[in-house]
Amino acid sequence: MKQRSTLALENITVEFPTRNGLFCALDNISLNIEKGEFVALIGHSGCGKSTLLNVVAGLVKPTRGVVFLDDQVVDAPGPDRAVVFQDHSLLPWLTVEENVRLAVDKTTPGKSKAERRDWVMHNLELVQMTHAATKRPGELSGGMKQRVGIARAIAMNPRVLLMDEPFGALDALTRASLQDAVMAIQAQLNNTVLMITHDVDEAILLADRVVMMTNGPAARIGEDLAVDIARPRARLAAMDTAEYAASRHAVVHFLHERYRNPVDQAA
Ligand SMILES: Nc1ncnc2c1ncn2[C@@H]1O[C@H](COP(=O)(O)OP(=O)(O)OP(=O)(O)O)[C@@H](O)[C@H]1O
């Protein structure tokens, strides 16, 4: 029998009850992600990306279908799947260090206090935030808060990192610097990642595969594109490759020709 992928979504359908009856958001979606793979999920607003990520996070129960993580059924939130949201969701009354330590305390109960502190600082170092360890979120820029959110997620040592538009609220330069940080961390830790983005360049630069969703209702996976650009990927050099241009063309064609934004179509 064929072995299941590390993360296996099998025939996921999500229907939401609404005042006008059932609304089918996702229709029979199957997706396999291997250990260490970085998958970007892209599609127009409202197609169902967050719903799919929330199913994997255990925050939305599928109407039909099953999610397996290392062959175990996933049907509730758990520390094996850390989520980074667009809004960093740090606790404002705790320092940077305390915010990360909260997650570490929950997920590594066996470690001594000193070990946990070292682990917190190690993860802050990965996102280059040790200098701000004693600051509170209110004293940080948006990009810095998002770095701490990423440190908190990876400090949980999750089997899968789920990112829902993690850089969506940042300006272009800060976004680029965070993308570089995530690529560096990925190269070091070999995380398994599912990331939602609206940004074609971000998807291609970061991901091993770009999974494109059709417009809802009843969204499906329209195309699953492997991005064959060698790693490590230096931004400018990667963008100059023929593979980058071909991948970009495929995604733009999908989003703006085959499955145009339903808002534009209605105009
Ligand atoms: N709890 C709910 N009840 C009813 N409908 C819902 C619910 N949650 C989501 N939907 C609908 O399901 C569809 C998919 O929503 P979802 O938030 O997953 O889309 P998305 O692709 O993440 O959008 P965006 O890119 O704008 O964040 C939308 O039409 C949305 O209105």
Automatic annotation (TrEMBL):
<protein>
    <submittedName>
        <fullName>Nitrate/nitrite transport system ATP-binding protein</fullName>
        <ecNumber>3.6.3.-</ecNumber>
    </submittedName>
</protein>
<keyword id="KW-0472">Membrane</keyword>
<keyword id="KW-0067">ATP-binding</keyword>
<dbReference type="GO" id="GO:0005524">
    <property type="term" value="F:ATP binding"/>
</dbReference>
<dbReference type="GO" id="GO:0015112">
    <property type="term" value="F:nitrate transmembrane transporter activity"/>
</dbReference>
<dbReference type="InterPro" id="IPR003439">
    <property type="entry name" value="ABC_transporter-like_ATP-bd"/>
</dbReference>
<dbReference type="InterPro" id="IPR003593">
    <property type="entry name" value="AAA+_ATPase"/>
</dbReference>
<dbReference type="InterPro" id="IPR027417">
    <property type="entry name" value="P-loop_NTPase"/>
</dbReference>
<dbReference type="GO" id="GO:0005886">
    <property type="term" value="C:plasma membrane"/>
</dbReference>
<dbReference type="InterPro" id="IPR050166">
    <property type="entry name" value="ABC_transporter_ATP-bind"/>
</dbReference>
<keyword id="KW-0378">Hydrolase</keyword>
<feature type="domain" description="ABC transporter">
    <location>
        <begin position="7"/>
        <end position="240"/>
    </location>
</feature>
<dbReference type="InterPro" id="IPR017871">
    <property type="entry name" value="ABC_transporter-like_CS"/>
</dbReference>
<keyword id="KW-0813">Transport</keyword>
<dbReference type="InterPro" id="IPR005890">
    <property type="entry name" value="NO3_transporter_ATP-bd-like"/>
</dbReference>
<dbReference type="GO" id="GO:0016887">
    <property type="term" value="F:ATP hydrolysis activity"/>
</dbReference>
<keyword id="KW-1003">Cell membrane</keyword>
<comment type="similarity">
    <text>Belongs to the ABC transporter superfamily.</text>
</comment>
<dbReference type="Pfam" id="PF00005">
    <property type="entry name" value="ABC_tran"/>
</dbReference>
<keyword id="KW-0547">Nucleotide-binding</keyword>
